[in-house]
Amino acid sequence: MRNHTASFSSSSSSSWYSNKLLFRQLFEKESSTYTYLLADVDHPDKPALLIDPVDRTVDRDLTLVKELGLKLIYAMNTHVHADHITGTGLVKTRVPGVKSIISKASKSKADVLIEAGDKIHFGDLFLEVRATPGHTLGCVTYVTGDAPDQPQPRMAFTGDALLIRGCGRTDFQGGSSQQLYQSVHSQIFTLPKETLLYPAHDYKGFTVSTVGEEMLYNPRLTKDEEEFKSIMANLNLPYPKMIDIAVPANMVCGLQDPSAKPDEALSK
Ligand SMILES: N[C@@H](CCC(=O)N[C@@H](CSS)C(=O)NCC(=O)O)C(=O)O
Ligand SMILES: [Fe+2]
């Protein structure tokens, strides 16, 4: 059991969602990346976190955090991105006390290395970590807490494991179409059907989907595993333009001090 500052307050499920969870979906247009800002605005400190910030839009994101009166505590990644440089290192240099988070399986450096089952607390809210490898070895999905006082419907931040009507490619960074198929079916499609899905990218103009919608209409993941593997083997996508710069940089949070020591700030 890893310790953290978790406490719970009770409030009515019909009214607390908008009163308590602040949620913003932000877009970086060059890499078509979504960054998510979440905060517990019912808590006196208004603790907040950023999921998948991009270096180019860190100033925009931090201005918003300041304007909303939030206290940023975490800057976290769903995986080692290949198409852009993460903003987590830059956020740390701009806001003292912020901790970077990535999965242990990614073999990257960050202040906090998370694993499946970990809970990331911000105020009275938390995100649960689910391992969803396949796009990369260390991909995780962050899901809002499974408890009566947590947001309903639940929200899943899928990174590149599941994209709306698509999924992450599996042809580099330890990718595996078999693993991705298993990850999505066992870790995402088992969530309640009304769970809101928020991916790390969208190339078609979508912003949000649901588990039920993707189980019906995802053109790749509704197929059986063999057909899925064949689809993925024949995508023939060009490599991301920034891959050779982005991957090594993102192994150290973009620019984080490599001497930073991981700490244990989570609970299981
Ligand atoms: N053209 C972009 C890269 C596009 C790309 O490869 N996207 C990745 C997610 S970023 S690692 C992907 O998995 N796409 C799946 C798909 O079906 O499009 C660039 O050059 O940066
Ligand atoms: Fe990716």
TrEMBL record:
Task: Identify the residues that the record assigns to the Metallo-beta-lactamase domain, covering every copy.
Answer: 32-201
| Enzyme class of the recorded protein, top EC level | oxidoreductase
In Pfam terms, one family for this protein is Lactamase_B
Reactions performed catalytically: S-sulfanylglutathione + O2 + H2O = sulfite + glutathione + 2 H(+)
What InterPro entries has UniProt attached to this entry?
Answer: Metallo-B-lactamas, Mito_Persulfide_Diox, POD-like_MBL-fold, RibonucZ/Hydroxyglut_hydro
Q: What is this protein called?
A: persulfide dioxygenase
Keyword annotations for this protein, in alphabetical order, are: Acetylation, Dioxygenase, Iron, Metal-binding, Mitochondrion, Oxidoreductase, Transit peptide
Q: Which family does it belong to?
A: Belongs to the metallo-beta-lactamase superfamily. Glyoxalase II family.
Q: Name one GO cellular component term.
A: mitochondrion
Query: GO biological process: what's one of them?
Result: glutathione metabolic process
SMART domains per the UniProt record, alphabetical: Lactamase_B
Entry's EC annotation? 1.13.11.18
Keyword hit for Acetylation: yes
Q: Which cofactor does it need?
A: Fe(2+)
Where is this gene product found? Answer: Mitochondrion
Recorded source organism is Hevea brasiliensis
Q: Which GO terms describe its molecular function?
A: metal ion binding; sulfur dioxygenase activity
